[in-house]
Amino acid sequence: KAERVREGFRRLLGERGAEIALDQNTHALVLRFLSALDLRRRPKLVTTDGEFHTLRRQMARLGEEGFLDVVVVPAGPVETLAERLAGAVDDRTSAVLVSAVLFGDSRIVPGLGELARVCGDRGAELLVDAYHALGALPFRLAEQGLESAWVVGGGYKYLQLGEGNCFLRLPPQADELRPMLTGWFSEFAELAAAHEPGAVQYPRGGMRFAGATYDPTSHYRAARVFDFFEQQGLTPEALRESYLGQTTLLADALGVPGRREDFGGFV
């Protein structure tokens, strides 16, 4: 069932061979991502003031301790957000963490592909929070120019998967990193193998960022929901058209400014 959930996320990302790590929440996945960065040599993290509480709270707490330089870029105006984030990246930057759709006002963040290119040129990682994008609008990585990005998200809202079904999509360079926070599931397939003394071994692929024991019951629900969406033709394109009809009706009635095409699935 877990593999069926991974396959559901792969289809939405438009990447058949995507390496996917699963966990019950995005916080655990983000922590393992952060623990794999070279924060001693590159202690700078760049984010925005428009992130969901998972990132907002953790980034704020890390910044309080003083051993990490957490740079918070204003989310508005969103039209220049990716450019301003790119401008904050330097040789001390380990990662940029930003949403594809801002949870506060539903604005779609443009230019993430160019931000990914800048991060790659500077040796920094880009993590995109796709929670409010995936399932609400088409979000295929190749079309977004995000093949080199880490992508985190879950199915609690738009995908109707309920709690306990979150994912981290690993980019090709993930096999070069060794998360410090690592659970025994990362050794699941090699528990009986001989281990090199004094070295923690990591598998290749999604299990590299796996955690440990959790309640997998939610995967049974999620697998059925993914099947149902496919049977009913509830593609991101079809759902996007439906959402735009509803959000346009609400926005017009309430006098909310802006083109609805620039917003995600809510008002």
What does this structure look like?
- The protein is globular and about 65 Å long.
- 34% of the residues lie in helices and 14% in strands.
- By secondary structure, the chain is of the alpha/beta class.
- Strands 1-7-6-5-4-2-3 form a 7-stranded mixed sheet, with helices on both faces.
List the helices and strands and how they pair.
Blueprint: H1 2-13, E1 19-23, H2 26-35, E2 44-48, H3 53-65, E3 69-73, H4 81-87, E4 93-99, H5 112-122, E5 125-129, H6 141-144, E6 150-154, E7 166-170, H7 217-231, H8 236-254
Parallel strand pairs: 2-3, 2-4, 4-5, 5-6
Antiparallel strand pairs: 1-7, 6-7
Helix pairs in contact: 1-7, 4-5
Features:
single chain, 267 residues, alpha/beta, globular
What would a concise description of this structure say?
The protein has helices at residues 2-13, 26-35, 53-65, 81-87, 112-122, 141-144, 217-231, 236-254; strands at residues 19-23, 44-48, 69-73, 93-99, 125-129, 150-154, 166-170.
How far the N terminus sits from the C terminus, by CA atoms, comes to 34 Å
Nearest-integer average pLDDT: 95
Number of strands: 7
Shape: globular
Element-level helix/strand string = HEHEHEHEHEHEEHH
Oligomer: single chain
Biggest sheet character: 7 strands, mixed
Strand line-up in the sheet with most strands: 1-7-6-5-4-2-3
Taken as a percent bin, the fraction of beta residues is 5-15%
Radius of gyration: 19 Å
Structural class: alpha/beta
Q: Ranges with pLDDT <50 over ≥5 residues?
A: none
Number of helices: 8
Kindly state the percentage of residues in helix: 25-40%
